[in-house]
Amino acid sequence: MNIHDCVFVACNILYLMIVFYKIIVLCIHKKQFYELVLFTEKNFWHSNYNVQEKLILTDCRRICGIFIIVLSFCAQGTCAGYMVTPLLANIGRNESDRILPFNMWVNFPTGLSPYFEILFTIQVLCVYHVGTCYICFDNFLCLVNLHVASQFRILQYRLKNLTDSFHKEADSLELEKNQTEMCYKKLRSCVQQHQMLIEYCSELENVFTLIVLGQVLFLAMIICLVGYQLFLNSIVTHKSVKKILTCLIFMQTDSPPSRSVSLVLNLGGTMCQLLMFTYSCDGLVQQSSNIGRAIFSGPWTTLPMNKVGRTVRRNIIIITLRTTRCCSLTASGFFPVSLETYTGILSTAMSYFTLLRNSSLDVENALD
User: What is the reported pTM?
Assistant: First the structure.
C-alpha cells in the first residue's frame, strides 16, 4: 500500500469516526436535544412577527438555504465518486477481477455474481448513510445558530422601537404616564425574550460543545488530508506549481477522473462546511453583543423622569451591562468559535499540509 492509499484510508476512517462521535454525543444528550428542537419549532419558526421582523427571518432562511444546498451538493458528489470510480475501473475487466468501492478480505470471490452486486449495493448504501449523518447535524446546528442570531436581531429592532406607537406630543400628564408605562411593559417583554435567548444559548452550548470541539479538530485534519491527496494526484507527473494547478483544474492526474472530481467536491464541501460552521457561530456572538448598542441608541432619552421612567433607565443599564458578556458556542470551553476560528483552522491545515508535502518531496528526491 502506497502513501496515496494510506491517506485515502485515513480520510475514510476520520469520516466514520466523526459520524459515530456525533451520534454518541447526541445520544447522551438526546433529551436536551429533543427539547431544543421542540422549543425552536414552537418559539422561532411559528410565532407572530410584523413586516420588518419577517424580513429578518426571510434573510436568515435565504442564507441557510444557500449553505445547505451547497454543502449537500458537495456531499452527494463526494458519495457519488465512491460509486462511480469502481464502475469506471471495472469496464473491460473480467468478472473475477472486478473491484468494489472498498476492498474486502473474505473467503469467497467478491468479484463474481451475485456476491459482487450485493456487496456493491451494501457498500454504496453505507457510504450514503455516512454522508447523510455527516452533514445533517451540521445543517441543524447552522440552522439553529442563524435563527438564534435572527432572534437577537429582532430583539434589537424591538428595543430600538419601544415608543413607535406613542404620540410625539402628549396632551396631558396622564397620557404621558400611560405611554411611559406602555414603554416599560414592552421593555419587560424584551427583557424576558433576552433571558430566554440566553438560556437557550446555554442549553445549546451544553448539547453541542463536545461536537464543536470534535468538528474543529476534524476539519483541520480533513482539509489537510484531502488537499494532500490532490497534491499527490498531480505531483506524480508534474513538478512545478504552475503545472500542478493546471493539472488540478483539468483533472489531468494518474487517478481516475471520477476520483479527482470527488476529491475536489470533497474539499469544496469541507471549506463550505467550515465557513457555514464558523459564520453561524460568529453571527451568534456579534448579534448578542449588539443588544447593548441597540438599546442605548433607543428612545429612552425622551421618557419623562418620573418613577416609571427612572425604572426603565435602570433596566436599560442592567441590560447594557449584561450584553458585555456575549453568547457563544465554545469548543468544550477552550475557545469561542467565530470567523477567527476559520482562519485558525486553515492555518493549522496548511501547516500539516506543508509538513506532509515536504516529507513526500524529500522521499521522492531520495529515491531519485
Answer: 0.79
